[in-house]
Amino acid sequence: MAPFLLTVLQVLLALTFWIGIGSGSSNRYNAGDHVPLFVNKVGPLHNPSETYQYYDLPFCRPELVIEKQETLGEVLNGDRLMSSLYELKFREDKTHFVLCRKRLTSSDVASFRDTIAQDYYFQMYYDDLPLWGFVGKVEGDYFGQGEKHTKYYIFSHLKFHALYNADEVIEINSFSDPSYLVDISENTEIDVQFSYSVSWNLTSERSETRMNKYSQASLHPISQKIHLFSFLNSITIVVLLIGLLSLLFMRHLKNELRSSSTGDEEEKKDVGWKLVQSDVFRCPQNVSLLCAFLGTGTQLLILIIALFALAFTGFLYPYNRGMLLTSLVIMYTLTSVVAGHTSASFHSQFEGDKQKRSVRLAGILYPVPFFIIVSVLNTVAITYGATAALPFGTIVIIILIFTLLNIPFLMLGGVLGNRFGLLEFQPPTAVKRNPREIPLQNWYRRKLYQVFLGGFVPFIAVVLEWHQLYASLWGFKIYTSPGIMLYTFAVLIFLSTSVGIILTYIQLSGEDHEWWWRSILCGGFSAVFMYGYGVLFYLRSDMTGFLQLSFYLGYTALFCYALFLVLGTISFLASLMFIRHIYRSVKLE
């Protein structure tokens, strides 16, 4: 075991250095030093997933385009940084410097005109600082000779405003000069002179805080009132549920337990959950799949907690190219041990010699749907020629990571869970050989109603913040406060736990002892509502096109599926603890 662990550790360290860890700190330069400006990508403003390489448009380009060495996270993020003709030397001003003179063919003009009609923007990086600008603009419609016309203009001059402190670049912005417009409304050849200007100014801001502005502002700032309404909404529901739980435990449930200790048989018959004490701990159906579900859900929960920790330490921040995806790859690989350990531990409580099947299922429960959806989306991106298409080498690297790291870590966790996992489960009451027949249930105890209610209550408490999250993931609203997101996640966990316990109690009160899978569905169904709201969010947005639609639905499905696993696991564990507590109390009485 020791040589195996050493080998895996060496491979992981090598992978970590290869993946690369970005930094928000600046480099140091002398006056006149060349600081490269890298062009990245272009795309329609309202379609964040639809981006193309900068030189897919007929911009000025050097004779030899040099592609910047990129990390795995940058490639997964769709970044394709390349060299440019712009020369922005440190602290050296320029005025109307000619970038190039280019003759645009009719096809080039048509290409620019189509992109301007879709509000295309471009993105560049200077000393790891992002900057944006628009390709052109559309003039308002006017009538000439009885016909309606639209004028299309391309911006031919770009202004760069840079700030520095001593020998470091602190901030840079780009502005398209509206005074330099080239009319490309007609589909004819045209000569265009592209130029740019650079101005440098001193600032007192330090380099350690130069990335803060990207965490404080966006094209559409988030309204603080929405956070306030979301807070009040969630607090109201939490208070109501706490009151309901208090009523359940302090009065109703205590009275039922007290009646059990008095020996009054008539009162015992009125309490349905006591009648199924010999069946409630019966081994559930598809126990291997259940344990794999719990293992994967626990893994993803630890992954989310780790990401929150990185966000609070300042390791993750907006526009840190690929850092979030890099962290996801590393954390998912490391937490595979948790999935294997949890699956094997839970399975050992039911069937002590069949843990391998649970561990294998835990290895495919999330990765297989993930790889299928990503493969389909990658095919769509290749068809469109978008930067979201993964190169062949990146695909090979991902397969190697999964094969050489994820699977060994998963197996290691399974071995540890088998040897040092939970002790064999001893139910508080004996389990009968033949299961008790479940009587016909009232409408409010039926599975469909309970699953709907179990998903709806937590969702309605966080729906406002969920809207902001979608706006951040699929728009230009930057979710800048991990504290607010952590609060929302904590409320979601508390509500899933509380509602799961209440619905499990209602189910057992109806003498229905098949609670295992229903508790998972009740907790995880919030993710189904979240996906449904995601569809509504798309319909109300300005996103268009099959590429953006497929990426939106595909990645939102993967995101909500992960939440389904997490919330289902939390609801199950809460229900399991609750059931053990009440039946242990009955046994003690």
Notable characteristics:
589 residues; alpha+beta; four-stranded mixed β-sheet; disordered N terminus; four-stranded antiparallel β-sheet; 16 helices
Fold and architecture overview:
It is a single chain. With 589 residues, this protein is α+β, with helices and mostly antiparallel strands. The protein has 16 helices and 15 strands. The strands form five sheets. A four-stranded antiparallel beta sheet has the order 3-2-6-7. Strands 5-15-12-13 form a four-stranded mixed beta sheet. A three-stranded antiparallel beta sheet has the order 8-11-14, with helices on one face. Strand 12 and strand 13 (168-176) form a beta hairpin. Helix 4 packs parallel to helix 14 (482-509), helix 7 (287-312) runs antiparallel to helix 9 and helix 14 (482-509) crosses helix 15 (516-540). The longest helix has 43 residues, at 546-588.
Derived from helix and strand composition plus strand pairing, the structural class reads: alpha+beta
Q: Compute the number of strand runs.
A: 15
Evaluate the radius of gyration: 29 Å
- The average pLDDT score comes to 83
What general form does the structure show?
elongated
Percent of residues in helical segments?
A: 40-55%
State the distance separating the first and last CA atoms. 48 Å
Strand content: 5-15%
| Major sheet strand order | 3-2-6-7
Residue stretches low in confidence (pLDDT < 50, at least 5 long) are 2-7, 9-24, 217-222, 266-270
User: Largest sheet, described in full?
Assistant: 4 strands, antiparallel
Number of helices: 16
